[in-house]
Structures are given as structure tokens and as C-alpha cells.
Design a protein that fits this description.
Blueprint (H helix, E strand, L loop, with lengths): L7 H36 L3 H38 L2 H8 L22 E9 L2 E8 L5 H4 L4 H7 L6 E5 L9 H12 L3 E5 L13 H19 L4 E6 L1 H15 L6 E5 L5 H7 L12 H11 L6 H4 L7 E6 L7 H12 L9 E6 L16 H9 L7
Parallel strand pairs: 3-4, 3-5, 5-6, 6-7, 7-8
Antiparallel strand pairs: 1-2, 2-4
Helix pairs in contact: 2-10, 7-8, 9-10
């Protein structure tokens, strides 16, 4: 019987083979584990992270929905509030609470570059004092230095014509664009008398259409008593054009019309102006707009019906309007002109409309910048401006 031979070489080879096989099995097992981990990491998302993103997305959508609901609530609440409290709409028409420029001392017109202007106060009604500025023609500025109110009052008797200026809403008689117009008119040889209606600037009282017209009539008569038969013109701007046509209608019905009426950026009536104003854009097409907003204006007895007034005016009328006016749209000024041109009361009187192209950029309150303005006024008023 042959004895089996177990040589060292065979044992080593067998051991090596077994080790190699074990290594492959372990490696294969480890690789399988790695693949499984890889699939878990890249093949599917972490449930906690997915849930977090979902919750954040839902939270953002909820906040946006809440924000839009809040905006919608405010949007719908404003018309209701205005209807319930129509006095709010009156404040929006007058804007007398907007005091721009701020920190201006109306007692010192010199601070606004008007070194030939005096400030004083008149009393149209009991308990109501209104602030007034009187600027003499530039030709008289040297003589005006250091003079008192009595001198300025007597200066109204000079041969220079007088312009009564009625400003629009917001601000005061010291507004920059208004001051610039005073300077232009003064340089052309006009006395300029302007004032703040009750409730504006440093004038006492509360604003109303009736009160504004009463103040304008009182100041007009005060000036007229001091100048005699010398020309007295009325210049109204924006909301002041409504006051101006109210005033001139009263004067014409009394048989004492002014020499001329100048309307800068006028509108037909306050309802049409409110409907065309940029502030009304977000509500203009809302059902019931007239009932909510325009009727609230009428409830305050605010009309400024220049389209009706021109049928009772009997003096020359000049209308100035910039085509790029966004506050009082150009088409309202043109519409008022067409009505005035067809008015029987204005038959035989000069009615003129001067448009200013968009390219000039005069918008609502910069017509004073026009180099043609002196020629326009001279041609319309039939006067020759004094030489500077």
C-alpha cells in the first residue's frame, strides 16, 4: 500500500489558494455592501430633507397667499372707507395738509429769492386771516428795499398792471414753481398778488370750495379798490382754475368782469378731473367707481364746474396746457376750450388755446419756463411789456 505524500509545497499552495478565495469572497461581499450604500445615497432622497423642502415650499405659498389676501382686503376696504367718511375724499382733493417745501417761513419771502415782496394778512371773514404776498415789478425792486406795507400798498397805484394769482392744491404760496412764475411775471412788469386760501400755508380756517372762492373774491376786491381802472388780470393754475372760473363768473354776473382770465392746466369739472387723475387709476374700472369716489366728492359740495362757469363768463380767456401733463390731462383743457369757444356769453371776446408740445417737457407746472410766454401774454393781452 502506497503511502500518501504530503509535501510542504502542496500544503503551501493549498493554503495560498484558500486565502485567495477567502479574500475574493470578502472583497465581493464588501463591494456588494458598497453598492448598496451607493444606491441608498444616490438612488433615493433622504426622507427628512424631502419633507423639509416640502414644508418650506408650503410655508412660502401660504405667506404669499396671506400677503395677497391682505392687499386685496385693503384695496376693497378703501372705497368703503371713503364712502362712509366722504371728508377723506375732500382732503385728497385739496391736499392742503401737504406742506411743501417744508420748513419754509412764509413771513420771509426774501428766503425764496423774492427781495421785492412783502408778506401781510387780510381778513375775508370774521376769525379768518389769510396770508398774502405782493411782489412789485422788477423795475421797482431797488426802490422796494426796506419799505413797509404802506409803501407796497401805494405802489399798486403805479402804471404797471396787476396779476392776481390763484394757486392749485397742495403746498403754499411759497411753492417753488409758483415763486418762479412770480419772478417771470414781475420781470415782465406786473405786480403779482397771491395768497393762501383758508386752511393752506399759514392761513387760518378749513378748506372748502365756497371758502376758497370767498377768499379770492375778497382779495380781488381789495386789490381793485387800490388800483382804480388799471388792468387787473386773474391767473389760475390747476385747482386754482376752478376757483378762478368761480370768481370770474361772480364778477361777470355782478357786471364787473376782470380784464382777462388766464387758465393754466385747467380741467372741466372736479368729477372728470378725479376720474382722470393718476391716483384713480387702480380704481377707475372698479364697478361702482362713481358711487364710491365721485359721489363722495359731491357730498362735500365740491364741484369746481368750469365747464358750466364758461357759459356765464364775459371777458377774454386764455388757456395754457402742456401735452405731457399727467396730473390734469391735456384733453380736459382742450375740452374746456371747445366749450368756451362755443359759449354765447364769450361771444365777441377773445378765447385762445395755447398747447405746449411733449418735447418741451413742461408737464403740469413748468410752463413758466417757456421763452415764448412773454410773447404769448403780450399778444393776448394786447400790451407791451415794460423794458427791463
Amino acid at each position: 500500500m502506497r503511502k500518501r505524500n504530503h509535501s510542504p509545497t502542496q500544503d503551501n499552495d493549498s493554503s495560498a489558494t484558500k486565502t485567495l478565495l477567502d479574500s475574493k469572497v470578502k472583497h465581493s461581499h464588501k463591494k456588494g455592501e458598497d453598492n448598496t450604500e451607493s444606491e441608498i445615497q444616490y438612488g433615493s432622497a433622504d426622507p427628512d430633507k424631502t419633507m423639509g423642502r416640502t414644508l418650506r415650499r408650503r410655508g412660502l405659498l401660504w405667506r404669499l397667499r396671506r400677503f395677497f389676501m391682505w392687499v386685496l382686503g385693503v384695496y376693497l376696504a378703501i372705497p368703503v372707507i371713503v364712502k362712509i367718511c366722504p371728508s377723506i375724499q375732500a382732503k385728497l382733493v385739496f391736499l392742503n395738509f401737504v406742506r411743501m417745501p417744508y420748513f419754509i417761513d412764509l413771513k420771509r419771502p426774501l428766503d425764496q429769492g423774492l427781495n421785492h415782496t412783502i408778506n401781510f394778512y387780510l381778513q375775508p371773514e370774521e376769525g379768518i386771516h389769510v396770508g398774502v404776498w405782493h411782489t412789485v415789478p422788477t423795475q421797482m425792486w431797488k426802490e422796494a428795499q426796506g419799505k413797509d406795507g404802506q409803501w407796497f400798498e401805494s405802489a399798486l397805484q403805479s402804471f404797471h398792471p396787476v396779476m392776481l394769482y390763484l394757486h392749485g392744491n397742495a403746498g403754499s404760496r411759497g411753492g417753488d414753481h409758483r415763486v418762479q412764475l412770480y419772478k417771470v411775471l414781475s420781470s415782465l412788469g406786473y405786480h403779482v398778488v397771491t395768497f393762501d386760501y383758508r386752511g393752506w400755508g399759514d392761513s387760518e380756517g378749513s378748506p372748502s370750495e365756497r371758502g376758497m372762492t370767498t377768499d379770492a373774491l375778497f382779495i380781488y376786491q381789495w386789490v381793485k379798490q387800490r388800483i382804480g381802472r388799471k388792468p387787473l388780470y386773474i391767473w389760475g393754475h390747476s385747482l386754482g382754475t376752478g376757483v378762478a372760473t368761480n370768481l370770474v363768473r361772480q364778477l361777470c354776473e355782478q357786471g364787473a368782469p376782470p380784464d382777462s382770465l388766464i387758465l393754466e392746466s385747467p380741467f372741466t369739472n372736479i368729477r372728470e378731473e378725479a376720474k382722470s387723475h393718476p391716483f384713480s387709476m387702480v380704481y377707475r374700472y372698479l364697478p361702482g367707481f362713481d358711487w364710491f369716489f365721485l359721489d363722495a366728492i359731491s357730498a362735500n359740495d365740491i364741484k369746481f364746474a368750469s365747464d358750466e362757469n364758461v357759459n356765464h363768463i364775459s371777458c377774454p380767456v386764455l388757456i395754457l396746457h402742456a401735452e405731457d401733463d399727467t396730473v390734469v390731462p391735456f384733453h380736459l383743457g382742450k375740452k374746456l376750450y371747445n366749450m368756451a369757444a362755443q359759449s354765447k356769453s364769450l361771444s365777441g371776446h377773445k378765447v385762445q388755446f395755447i398747447p405746449f408740445p411733449v418735447s418741451l417737457g413742461y408737464r403740469h407746472k413748468f410752463i413758466y419756463r417757456s421763452p415764448e410766454l412773454p410773447h404769448i401774454l403780450s399778444d393776448f393781452l394786447g400790451t407791451t411789456h415794460p423794458q427791463m
